[in-house]
Write a structure and sequence with these properties.
Length: 383
Amino acid sequence: MNAADIRTRFIEFFVARGHLAGEPASLVPAGDPSVLFTSAGMQQYKPYYLGVDTPPATRITTAQRCFRTNDIENVGRTARHLTFFEMLGNFSFGDYFKTEAVDWALELSDELGIDRGRVWVTTFGGDETVPPDDEAVRLWVERGIPEERIIRLGRKDNFWGPVGPTGPCGPCSELYFDMGPEVGCGGPDCAPGCDCDRFLEYWNLVFVQYEMNEEGALAPLPRPSIDTGMGLERIAAVTQGVVTVFETDLFAPLIARGAELAGVDPQGSAAIVRALQTMAEHARGAAFLVMDGVVPSNEGRGYVLRRIIRRAVQQGVAIGIEEPFLARLCAQVVEMMGDAYPALAASRDEIVAAVGEEESRFRRTLQQGMSILDEALRRARDS
Ligand code: SER
């Protein structure tokens, strides 16, 4: 099943269960100066969870493009970390709660062909302020997930939110797919929550029950709600039977193109694999950031865009691409995703121009740096 089909199936599944197909938000959040980017599907709905605004429907579903700056350095180092990704979500604002969220997560996982025998889940194990989520454990057990595949984790792993300094949050329960022991670290304690690539978290169900204030204190929300997020790239890896998100149809053509431009074997070495993954990942991020109105600059969002463009170019230069290439990869992103995102197709020229210009500027800087270094080395040799 290709990623476009998964995206459509997800939305249709939840529309059939009474959800409104919501309009995804821009990567540049409207009216929320506390955060740089949209990094979760629920973000645009914060006022609905808090009860300060009325939602158009009490059940909404979206495919939300997200950007997470904290994962920039992990791109290319793991099989699963991305800066730009799509999160498929279903949201309940004081409507259904845990039972339906769990039921539908299992039902849709089955529909997508995910082998239940390889599904593990995590639940919130409790801490000094929030009790352990025994109800979630019971729901999973009743639905046939064996106790030994239910892992209770702490606040760092299984309590989600808020986005930004304050806002809605709550204990969560995550679905993981076991990619197989051969993929993992082999450690005796390897299980969901381990840093290795064996257990891939593909769906996070957040039981939104609290509002966090500036001091980190939790106040109960008037009505328990639901916020779920399934990573499209990750679920595509699972359904397409590959180990890394970079082997899915969302990335593979970009990686092949990068290898062609560099004239390298895409599996040639670990450094090449990492470079090609980084180039493809950052091409997607750059294309979508420009689509949403970000321009390269030295601060804020523009700086993040500049940084990913430069990281991608650096990697391309390192594997021998002499001519500017990133705008071409971005144009390919537009080709691959323009059907799902008409605004991306409409921004094609702008994306190519902004990325092309930034790459040329950076290559000039690199060139000047190299000349200065050459000159210094020559002087040192001659002295
Ligand atoms: N907000 C949660 C997350 O980002 C679930 O959608 O993981």
